[in-house]
Amino acid sequence: MTIELRIDDAIVTAEQGDTIRDVAARHGVEIPTLCWAANLTPVNVCRLCVVEVEGSRPLVPACSRPVEADMVVSTNSHRVRTSRRMVLELLASSVDLDRAEPELLDQIEEYGARPERFAAGATKHAPVKQQDELYVRDYQRCVLCYKCVEACGDDAQHTFAISVAGRGFDAHISTEFDTALPDSACVYCGNCIAVCPTGALTPLTEFVRREAGEWRPDQQSVTRTVCAFCGVGCNLDLHVQDGEVVKVTSPADHDITQGNLCIKGRFGWQHLR
Amino acid sequence: MSDLHVGSERADDAEAAAIERVLATTGPAVARVSARVTLGGMQATASRRHLLLPGLWALQDAVGWISPGGLNSLCLALGVPPAEGYGVATFYDLLRTERPSTTIERRCDDLACLLAIEPPIPTDVDAVESSPCLGQCDRGAASLIQTCGAPPRIETPDREPRVDAGPSPRLLRRALTGAVTSLADYRALGGFVALAAARTMGAEAVVDAVTAAGLRGRGGAAFPTGAKWRAVASETATEKHVVANADESEPGTFKDRVLMERDPFSLIEALAVAGFAVGARTGWIYVRGEYPEAYQRLVAALDESSAAGLLEGITIEIRRGAGAYICGEETALLESIEGYRGEPRNKPPYPTTHGLFGAPTVINNVETLINVLDIVEHGPDAWRSVGTHDSPGTRLLCLSGHVEHPGVYERPMGVRLADVIAEAGGVRGARPLQAVLLGGAAGAFVHPDQRDLELSFEAAHEAGVGLGSGVVMLFDDTVDLRAVVRRAARFFAHESCGQCVPCRVGTQRQVEVLTSERPDTALLDDLEQVMRDASICGLGHTASSLVRSARTLGVL
Amino acid sequence: MFGAGGGTSSYREIEDADVIVLWGSNAREAHPIFFHHVLAGLRKGASMYVVDPRRTASAAFADVWLGLDVGSDIALANGVAREIIAAGLVDREFIDAATDGFDELVTAVEPWTLDRTAAITGLPQLQIRDFAHAIGGARRLQLCWTLGITEHITAVDNVFALINLALLTGNVGRWGSGLVPLRGQNNVQGGGDMGAIPARLPGFADLTDASERAPFERMWQAAVPSRPGLHLSQMFEAMHSGSLRALWVIGENPADSEADGEHARAALGALDILVVQDLYLTRTAAMADVVFPAAAGWAETDGTVTNSERRVQRVRAAVAPPGQARDDLAIVFDLAAAFGHDWGAPNAETVWNEVRSLSRNHAGMSYQRLDTLGGLQWPCLDDDDLGAPFLHGRLWARPIEGPRAPLQCVEWQPPADALDEHFPLRLTTGRVLDGYNTGVQTARFPSPIRSGATLDLAAATAMRYAVDDGEVVRVVSRRGAIPMTVRIVESLPPDLAFTTFHFPEIADVNRLTADAWDPKSGTAEFKATAIRLESIDADTQGGRA
């Protein structure tokens, strides 16, 4: 059913069931997100996408709130901007964002976030975990967006090797009893890595290059091809730097994989080296 | 439903026996029919997930902690991935995932106990931990003792708290005389008359009566109960639930504990009435983990009531919380029952349409539910005869702090604050009153100038305070209110579920700012705004309300 | 299927199925991303039956795991068919309107009572009956299989037996209903479609039919042989008999992958000339007279592959091949030139366009369309055709379009490599998640979950044969013997052993397997080997070798 609502200064039409974010995006109104992804169920935990909806006392998360007829939505009011700025300050003052997606760093700029105001505050401390030759988990970069948990769990892989453990500021991503990854349920599909927005989870090949200062996304080309292993036909995006494949991902908008791969698809390319 | 890969450790005999008891009625998620056939699947797994928390409790009670072997075996039996089992176990304060000292004392150092005159009772323990409010503020400095191989128990000074039913005894009518622990005694005091009356009236008439009475929720949100019930009653789903929120944990609140300890049958009966009224065949009571006595009394009352055939048409299950304030938030409570981390859901949708296991659900606080018994038995008009027009009925007030006679006081809605304080013996030692905390850690301070305030929803709203869960905590002139504010802030940081950024990091930052020499008010303003505006649930929304109140009073 | 040579459904359809059957398929490990679609179906409420001798990673997600005896698939399918008929669960309208052979099938499956089916399969009668009723009651059934069905001497008959179940219940040709053979390799479907099977030409054209040959002869201006060539098993027979003397192997490692490996390697060794074209110096390449180092098709060359839902997709060169390695196409063109045929400059797109001009099913699949549409599913007849998500919708037209779908009467027979007192234990083989075929590629990335090749046994089996977890035993079949390390697992029923074949350097499993093959498909019976276990200690004390 088609309905009408107001987003900022425009009356727009939408389908029942659309989220505010969907409709806004369709009408060219960009709402920042961090924990949202096209191939995951919205968990609305980062609260970066909050918008003002007339009649609602708290702000509402645009990523998950379905539109209603005659809704009046403000996506960029002072209240909205203050909340976004604070969310960014809170995150940036507690975790290391220097390897985050460029969009997040741009938002810190755009909203005038000044994380240094909380410079004396607690930060997330965690030693880098490298327990095998494929993954690096650097949880001092983790913003607890839940994406990895969702990708490992019921949004894709159904392996559930990781979960959020603990509570409050101490909440963290963990295997049971912090079991080393190779001994956990992990099957190294890397679907967690694929959705991590902050560089907390990276393939070892990328981590090593980053540590050496040799990770140069601006010099990488991406070529789409099909995985060489089983007969499913997963699309692979080969990220090539200096004539070498350095990482493999899958397009989130392709209906075979929805961005997901298995260990062979994501890491099997290393036989090329 | 997962690959269900677990490590090699398995439960020892005591743990295995504990798991077996939890699975006694359902059996494991995967049934082995023969060496060549197994039955399992998503439904089998999903339908057992709610046994995770009882299973974790069984392990904790059996051996004092959730060991890797115990967790593995429990997870295998339920089909729960061990990482998720661990994630749930580590959510709760009372469940331990490291081998603990033999006996641990969790000593309350929260708002009321901060003020306790008595020193903590010396106990023979191996370790002492700080605990948020244990809901024993009427008794004085309290501790929860966790010993391996036994359920937790509470230790308090040996003091008989006040249970004062006031001029219109209703909710405390039976509790007045001491604990009603047998069905015979309960019936002698008029028990199960209301349920019979409800059945005679018919479901719709019960909903009508509750609506006409104008009963509003006593848990803090003051939502009209009749509207909630009508919403669920009108749902056509075959699966519906009624849930009693007995996870009372707001610092300074203990009234529901007193009700459950002294009058457990009434909650069972009230829940049965609710189930009948809305067409739910399953009822759940989620009791705070720190209330072992209430839990045991409820279990006994439920057993006796069921055995007597009084609960036809409804199956009631009692669940123990495990040390998480956030589970008092209704959707977090539902998540907890379902066997997940007690993380509040985003709303809408609300529980009336998407509640427990996704089915339409009524969830009411204990005090709210027990009011229903009088409404059904005596009719809405009689029930409305006390209280104010907009806040009919009585209210249970939890007097604590620097008051002469701490305890639960039942008073008609609209009673003057000063009158209740006076009836409780006034400020302890007749010292000057500095402030009264209304509504708990999420509430606000009231200045002595406001002592004429009427305790009704509308008057409190007008005064910019909330009645919340009925906390009336007195502070005399010796108290450093800044310390009270800091303790409240620490409480919220400790109890934040950690799900959303504003609350997870915001409550932490609020503690840090308040702990600094001269708290930066600009930072406090910003923190207040983001927590109030952008948090998922009420915890974050109100985590700064006491800070704001203290600033208004000029304390900060 | 019914002459189409491809699975009838799209992956996406399984998300809308109400009953999912994985039969001889461990998709969780062998087709992990297909299994994501299965999981989506389960989350939407589908129930799943996994028919597999092992309680696989896939079976762990099943509502019901049916651990039938290795090679008893036709028995189970016939028993299920009989129960579906007996219980009145047949889609009578569909049978009458769209199929042939129903009465014959009724007669053929009549002996397959629950009692007899249970005796042959080892499954309880009650669960066989329930399974039949689940299939019979399904509104949208997805019946998926892999090599557990096709690596048997009754491979084709096994497939027919499964097709019967779908036809009996009208579960084909509709969205959500269908037959899904999951292909083991990324271009098995495409290879078959392109005529890389003995009796076919590109587009699945029938080599023996002059009218189907004619367009190729016109295009190539040469006569196309009318006699089908040899399939793999026949080639090895021909090598043994000496009638096949020269072999050109492209991207295959038969020295490791053929059943009865010793025998196969002897055949390769006896050739006049062996040419191997591969990415690596495989065991086969090491035996070759000439090796052509080849580029990796999926990352170093351009072209297309076709997946298990008949979707043709582009592969693209992202990096240059190492050293002297060259595009397969270039090697073939150069060889043609050396034989005196100038085929011009190699170009994947022009080759593809030639295919499109000869294969009607691929006609609408220009590179440009494949690029913009993310691949296309055949048949795709012209530039306006968006391809076919599912096949055989024609069977639901009334009257139906085209020929009727035949029900096929098939008879069960036990595996060729029989169990007896000397070889009492059944060994079956399969893939694991991080492995692929003979490990040529998958051994070259550092998988943290690499298991190595172990001989997996149930605890009861190990006890019965007095072997321990971690013990190295001699595994003996009628063809050979290899040492293997025992691993006790919970996924196997008694008297069944399992191993992978990804680690021939650790355990040369194909020294054990039998080369008995299905006369209809030529596939060897990798899934059923008779073995016994011998203690290595006994051997050193003078036991027989």
Describe the structure using short key phrases:
heterotrimer, B: 556 residues, alpha/beta, Rossmann fold, six-stranded mixed β-sheet, four-stranded mixed β-sheet, 22 helices, C: 545 residues, Dimethylsulfoxide Reductase, domain 2, Barwin-like endoglucanases, five-stranded parallel β-sheet, 20 helices, 17% strand, disordered C terminus
Describe the structure.
Chain A has 273 residues and is an alpha+beta fold. In chain A, 21% of the residues lie in helices and 19% in strands. Chain A folds into 2 domains: 1-122, Ubiquitin-like (UB roll), CATH 3.10.20; 135-272, 2-Layer Sandwich (Alpha-Beta Plaits). The radius of gyration of chain A is 20 Å and the shape is globular. In chain B, 40% of the residues lie in helices and 15% in strands. Chain C is an alpha/beta fold. Helices cover 31% and strands 17% of the residues of chain C. Chain C has 20 helices and 21 strands. In chain C, helix 15 (283-286) links the parallel strand 10 and strand 11. Classes of the chains: A alpha+beta (273), B alpha/beta (556), C alpha/beta (545). Chains in contact: A-B, A-C, B-C. The interface between A and B is large, with 53 and 52 residues. Strand 2 (37-39) of chain B pairs antiparallel with strand 3 (64-66) of chain C.
CATH class of the largest domain in chain A: Alpha Beta
> What is the domain tally of chain A?
2
Remind me, CATH topology of the largest domain in chain B? Answer: Rossmann fold
Spatial ordering of strands, largest sheet of chain B: 7-13-12-18-15-16
Query: How many domains of chain B?
Result: 5
| Biggest interface, residues from each chain | A-B, 53 and 52 residues
Mean pLDDT of chain B: 95
Low-confidence stretches of chain A: none
Q: What's the CATH class label of the largest domain in chain B? A: Alpha Beta
SS field, number of helical segments of chain B:
22
- Alpha-carbon distance between the two ends of chain B: 51 Å
How large is the share of residues in beta strands of chain B?
A: 15-25%
Oligomeric state, counting identical vs distinct chains:
heterotrimer
Radius of gyration of chain B: 23 Å
Shape descriptor of chain B reads: globular
What sequence of helices (H) and strands (E) makes up the elements of chain A? EEHEEEHHEHEEHEHEEEH
Distance between the termini of chain A: 53 Å
